[in-house]
Amino acid sequence: MTELSKPESTADSRWRALLPDLAPWRTSPDFRRLWVAGLITNFGSFLTFVALPVQMKELTGSAVAVGAIGAVELVPLIVFGLYGGALADALDKRKLIIWTEAGQGVLSAVLLVNAVLPGPLVWPLYAVAALSSALVAVQRPALDALTPRIVRHEHLPAAAALNSLRWTVGGVAGPAVAGLVVAYAGLGWAYAADLATFAVSLVLAVGLAASPAAHEAAKPSLKAIAEGARYAWSRKELLGTYAIDLAAMFFAFPLAVLPFLADELDAEWSLGLMYAALPAGALLVSLTSGWTSRIHRHGRMVVLAAACWGLAMVAAGAVHDVWLVLLFLTLAGCFDMVSGIFRAAMWNQTIPDELRGRLAGIELLSYSAGPQLGQVRAGGMAALFSVRTSVWAGGVMCVVAVGALAVCLPQLMRYDVRSNAHAVRMRVARGGAGGG
C-alpha cells in the first residue's frame, strides 16, 4: 500500500463509521418487515398530520381551535397509553399491531369522506383525532415491546437509530408532499393517500411472526399498570428521560402555530417545508448515526440535546427571515433525534421483557403527551401574546426546565451503559442473543 492511499483509506473508514449500523436489518427478518411497514405508515400519517390542522384553520381561522386538537388527543393518549402497555405485556403483540393498524385505516376513510362533503364539519376532525390517539396509544407499546424480542441485545442502539431513520424519512417526505398536495390537489387527496398507506402496511404486519405474552406477564389491570409505574419510579434515570422529554415538548413544540407563522412571514408556500424541517434535521442525524453506538453516557446526551432543542426554538422565534426559521427548525430536529436515540437505547437495554409493554406505555406518555400539551401551550400563548413570542419564549422555558431537571436528577447524568446495574443484568440475561 502506498503512502498516498493510506489517508484515503482512513477517510473511507471514518465515513463508514458514521453510517447507520445495519446489523438489525441484516439479522432479523421481522425487523425488516416491521421497518418497511412503519416507513409506509409514517409517510401517510404525516400527510394527515399536516392536512388536519390546515383544514381546521380553514374551517375556523382560530389558533386556539388548531391547538385544541392536541387537547382532545391528550385524554385518550393517557388512558389508552397506560392500558395499552398492560395489553402489550398480556396479549400477542402481533395481533394488537394488526387490529390497531386496521382501525387507523378506518379513521382515515372518515376524514376522506368528511373532506369531500360540500360543507366539511369541524367535529369529525376532533373525533378522529381523539380516536386515532387512542389507537396509537394501544399500538405503540406493542411495537416498542416487540423490538427487543426480534433484535439482538447488542444491536438495540442500532435498531433505535434505524427506527428513527424510518420515522424521519416519512417525516421529511410526508409534510413536504402534503404541502403540495393540500395546496394544489386538495385535502381529500392527502387523506386518500393516508388510507392507501395503512392498507399496504396492514398486509406487511400480517406477515409478522406471533409474539405471545411472556410467562411472567401480568393480566391487564389497574394493579398491573401500578406495578409498571412503581418500577418506573424506582428507576430515577428512566424518570429523568421521561421528564426531560416531556419538558422539551411541552415548552418548545411549535407545530400548532406553524400555519400562522408562515402567514406572518408572508410565505404560505413554506408551510410544508416548516413541517418537514424538524424531521429533516432528524434524518441528518439518523443517516450519520454510527457514532451513537460508541457513546456510553446516554443520560448526559439526552440532557444536552434537549437543551439545544430549546435554544434552536429561541432562534426560530426570534428571526424574521423564513429561510433562517427553516434552518433553526432543522437544527432543532437534529437535537431532538439525538435525544430520542439515547432515550430509546436506555429503555431497550435496561427494562425486563415482562414489564416492557407497561413501561412503553409510560414512555408513550412522555414523548406523545408532551407534544399534545405543547400544541395547547403554543396556541394559547400565540392567542395571548403573538406567534413569535409563543415560539421563542417556549424555547427559553425549555432550557430553564431542562437545566433544573438535570440538577434534580443526578442519576440521569451519571448513567453509563457499561456499569449501570440494570443494563448489566439485561446484558447477562440475554447473553447477546436475539429475541423472537
Instruction: Characterize the largest beta sheet: strand count, sense, and whether it forms a barrel.
Output: none
Provide the β-strand percentage band. under 5%
- Proportion in helices: over 70%
What is the string of SSEs from the N terminus onward?
HHHHHHHHHHHHHHHHHH
Ends: how far apart? 45 Å
Tell me what you see in this structure.
80% of the residues lie in helices and 0% in strands. The protein is built from 18 helices and no strands. Helix 7 (156-184) packs antiparallel against helix 12.
Q: Which helices and strands occur, and which strands form pairs?
A:
Layout (H helix, E strand, L loop, with lengths): L4 H14 L4 H5 L1 H32 L2 H28 L2 H23 L7 H28 L5 H29 L2 H20 L15 H13 L1 H17 L5 H7 L6 H17 L10 H21 L3 H29 L5 H29 L2 H22 L1 H5 L6 H10 L6
What descriptive keywords fit this protein?
mainly alpha, 18 helices, 436 residues, disordered C terminus
Please sum up the structure shown.
The chain has 436 residues and is mainly α.
